[in-house]
């Protein structure tokens, strides 16, 4: 009751509500355009809100944050270009739905379950900030490495019929992520003397190439550049049909919140883990995963939006940002004289309530904007391909260039577009490569840090592995890999078939 009473003044403050709506509208626009990230929009708002009241600044920033995370799904579904790394998983089933003429349905499920995920994560922030933080603090460098490895092992066979090919693709992504300055000694690694590569492979141009430009190349190579991407069916989906996924979505939201609370893990990890769980627990999906299963869209969108509340937990209670956006929000706090930390929730209750109120209002605006915009935006798929493909190519170039205003990034986009095209032709999934690209740097840094810390212990092996969280993650990773070995998988299938009725 105290929590609701603290938020109530913000809910009835027209200025606060309008500023939150303005942020939500900006988040919808920014997130839907490839290359314009939520982080970029939030960073621009820091300078804009410098002289504002703290509550006003938080209202607009939370509106941008909540809706911006969802809106990356729009381009992911319609033109196969994820607006952000968190939307990569949404392309796996969202785009096939759009190609089948069910873009409206995919956008509707994405909006509804992004709303569910956002509300779940924010309620977890309000009610469970301290215990979730205590759990996150128990994670050591080796745990972060194993969590990333578990994500790669899980996703290995999701976008490719061959698990080994999925793992190869993921390992290629990890290798590419190692390009740049060494995270420990600071020397150039695998840059071949190319100065822009010192900062590593830029993620957004790589994603735009792997998904957007590779799709253009595939359409041209297959001779399908004529006609439309798909028709637009405005189907009436009853509420009881939509809510069928709610129990499983709450499970995905839990994954998203917990992963979000781990600094550096972020939304891509949450979305991939949730998608892997959906693949495991959904026995009879509406369609096979990767071919237009709404269950895949639900898993991805509910988990990555639940990360919002999770990422705010360590930022508020420990002053440790959970992702890039919360790092920028942290700077807003410092600009306005606030000091996040263990005593923040007690000393700055008003600002805490403003964050929650802004996030929940942003969630409501997410749902409204998603439902109102879905029928209109979904018409994009009915545009003839001879018009849409050049437009997608232009968007790819603009999106790659907009990240850092460098022509080098456009070259990276073209390189990854060609790479993605050839990987698809050979049956290698691009989604595992993306996860490897996103997680490779974190895996490298945490593994080397863990080994460095363990080397000073009396028993290095025990220091590395004999901790409860570490052992659980190790067993989960090993089990995932073993159960996907073809011989083991066939044996398990035979055992299930022999199970008595």
Please describe what this structure looks like.
The chain has helices at about 1-10, 15-30, 40-50, 55-80, 90-100, 105-135, 140-155, 165-175, 205-220, 240, 245-260, 265-280, 295-320, 325-335, 345, 350-375, 385-405, 405-425, 430-455, 460-465, 470-485, 485-500, and strands at about 180, 190. By secondary structure, it is mostly helical. The chain has a two-stranded antiparallel ribbon. Strand 1 (about 180) and strand 2 form a beta hairpin. Helix 3 (about 40-50) runs antiparallel to helix 4 and helix 6 (about 105-135) runs parallel beside helix 13. The longest helix is centred in the N-terminal third of the chain and has 35 residues, at about 105-135.
Keywords, separated by commas or semicolons:
501 residues; 2 strands; mainly alpha; globular; two-stranded antiparallel sheet; single chain
